[in-house]
Here is the input.
Amino acid sequence: MPAKPGNYVAVLRDSLFLKNRVVTGASLSPDGKTFVLTSYIIRKKWGLFPSTKATAYFFSGFTGSAFLQGTRQARRLPKCLIARQFESVSWWDGNYWLVANEGKGPQQQAVWRIKKPG
Here is the structure.
C-alpha cells in the first residue's frame, strides 16, 4: 500500500492453512531470502491449565514475494511452564532470529534468540 492517505483495495495473493493456529508475527531477512512466521495454539491441559505450542516457520527458495511458495521448515519455540504468547519475530544475523512474547500475569516479557533451521 502506498504510504499516503487514500482508499485502497487489498488483494489476496496467497494463503497458508495452519490448523487451529494463530499467526502473530512475520519478518523478512534483509537479503530477502528468508521469510519467517510465528504462530501458536492455546489449549487447556487436563481442561484446567493454559498451554501453548508455538512454532516459527522459515520459508526459503521462493521467487519474488511468493514467500509461502518456498520451502518451509519449522522450529519449535521455547516451551515454558507458563503459557507464552509469542507475538513477534525479527532478523538478528545470518543464522539467528529473535522472537518475543508478551507479558501477562505471571508470564514475563522475554526475547529469545532462535537458530534458523538447516
User: Anything to note?
Assistant: The first strand starts at residue 22 and ends at 28.
